[in-house]
Design goal:
about 240 residues; 8 helices; alpha/beta; six-stranded mixed β-sheet; binds manganese (II) ion; Purple Acid Phosphatase, chain A, domain 2; about 40% helix
């Protein structure tokens, strides 16, 4: 069975290039035998709760997701920090499995740890505070109650700031970030033990192998769709990068 992993598209509109590429990719999946689709967060530049404004804006994506679901595809959505409290649509209407924290799953006989990746850098205390706030049940309640149009306005301001910061940060610190991704893999391996760890969020694509007691472990960060667009495919225990354009 084929499994696909994508993250950090930061889709603002299906009309932009990344949106068209995503739609083409999802359409290509509808021609295949059903498999697993893993969305590892920040798929959308902003999606909060189940507000109609997001469902309408990304209706082309949703239509294809619903088609895939009806064909028997399993869809897993790990929330990022730009897609938050999304279960009213993604879980309750679409029927995807929605996670907010890391999971270890058996895929094709491989033990795979999956997560968005926003807990890779444990030194970013400002972000960890923000995360606790965004994930707080009270904030979630407000997220569901306040209309989507309001969140869109907030999101536009917030995404502009965070992206400007992150593009500069990520260029200047690619080596540092790579070290963090790998360090994280070693650290969580000690508690979870897995064959493969896949994360996103850091916007630095990385594919790294290490050994523990003679066992080969692979750590992959999916990078982002701001660089060359590649997604990860897992089939019969084999990992493969697939370039989309
Ligand atoms: Mn993120």
């Amino acid at each position: 069975m084929e499994s696909y992993f994508l993250s950090d598209i930061h889709l603002k509109s299906v009309n932009e290039r990344r949106g068209q590429i995503l739609l083409r990719f999802l359409l290509s999946l509808t021609q295949k035998n059903p498999g697993n689709l893993f969305l590892l967060g920040d798929i959308f530049d902003l999606w909060i709760s189940g507000h109609p404004v997001f469902k309408k804006k990304f209706s082309d994506v949703i239509r294809l997701m619903e088609l895939l679901k009806s064909q028997g595809w399993k869809i897993y959505f790990f929330e990022g920090n730009h897609d938050l409290h999304i279960h009213p649509y993604w879980r309750d209407e679409l029927g995807a499995e929605v996670f907010t924290e890391a999971q270890v799953m058996d895929i094709d006989g491989l033990k795979v740890r999956l997560e968005h990746g926003d807990l890779i850098n444990l030194e970013d205390e400002a972000y960890l505070r923000l995360r606790r706030f965004l994930r707080h049940p009270m904030t979630e309640r407000v997220g569901h109650l306040v209309p989507g149009q309001f969140w869109q306005k907030v999101g536009q301001a917030w995404a502009g700031i965070s992206r400007k910061k992150s593009i500069v940060y990520q260029k200047q610190n690619a080596d540092e970030i790579q070290k963090m991704i790998r360090h994280h893999a070693h650290r969580v391996y000690n508690s979870d033990g897995f064959d493969l760890i896949i994360s996103g969020h850091m916007h630095v694509r990385d594919d790294y192998q290490f050994e523990v007691h003679g066992k080969k472990i692979r750590s992959i960060n999916l990078g982002s769709w701001f660089e060359e667009i590649q997604i990860l495919k897992l089939n019969a225990g084999q990992v493969e990068w697939v370039r989309l354009d």
